[in-house]
Sequence to fold (307 residues):
Amino acid sequence: MIYTVTLNPALDYFVEIDELNVGALNRSTYDYKAPGGKGINVSRVLKRFGHNSKSLGFTGGFTGDYVRDVIEKEGIETDFIQVNGDTRINIKVKGKIESEINGVSPDIKNEYLEQLQKQLSVLNEGDALVLAGSVPSTIPDDIYETLCQGALDRKAEVFIDSSGEPMKKVIEKRPTFIKPNHHELGELFSVELKEPKEAVPYVRKLIEKGITYVLVSFAGDGAILGTNEQILYANTPKGIVRNSVGAGDSVVAGFLAAKKEKMNLEDSFKFAVATGSATAFSKGFAQREDVETLMKEITISEIGKGE
Ligand SMILES: Nc1ncnc2c1ncn2[C@@H]1O[C@H](COP(=O)(O)OP(=O)(O)O)[C@@H](O)[C@H]1O
Ligand SMILES: O=P(O)(O)OC[C@H]1O[C@](O)(COP(=O)(O)O)[C@@H](O)[C@@H]1O
Fold:
């Protein structure tokens, strides 16, 4: 079973406007809402590809009910822990450019964290745990480290998509897979990375730590996948970006789905990048047939040796 954990879910509120005028009254031309948060998005994309997962984390209030109800209607199994306070609302403004304001999590008490750890004590060999998104400020920033170690001790695989201190700490535990974007990879090593080939030495360092797969996304400029054997580059397909929210989560879901379907490494990488781009090119999430079409536009090449 795949378990996704979203410590900080959200109701994503998308607002489309012609142009954002800061300091003035703006009226939207179109708006809509969707459940959000990185683990939740991974579960939703997996479901579209026919893969079940169980979505865990903390939800509260009317916004939390909305998030849970929508994803349960999509057929996703959930076991969210109910907290006091409302799940946050994240605002995504799409004018001439995209701007985002991500909200603050409700308080997460220690007893809720203990409940989550108890839920994860069922993990076993053959299971995968996805730890994705920001960590609420009331939770210690070594939480991913703790949950990752627990899952690895139980012989489950661990997939991470986060940033900042929680990411810095969890990589020391040697998770199975991480997906930083190029800013997040740069942040890990206090460097600025402008193009994919500059990421190679840092990907190598992460592989040397013992992480099995390091996938670095560079938005429309391609992606890198490092393993013990090789470091690969994939170009990204060309298209019109309609909404990039959830594109990174789609890459994680694509890689997990490919792994479940036992694709070889190159095809898994192509499938993951094509899933990210198919989401970026649509208003919602990727559809499998679009992913399969976009895969044909992706070429994989080797840009560095592993260890
Ligand atoms: N301009 C683009 N053209 C094609 N694909 C894109 C574009 N921007 C994002 N994507 C897709 O979304 C993925 C994740 O984007 P990125 O911005 O690197 O990550 P994140 O969303 O985590 O910040 C990319 O690997 C790619 O598949
Ligand atoms: O937990 P964070 O880092 O605030 O991110 C949450 C936001 O990221 C998303 O999961 C989208 O992430 P990506 O665009 O990186 O795929 C939104 O649904 C959500 O609003």
About this structure: The two ends are 31 Å apart (CA to CA).
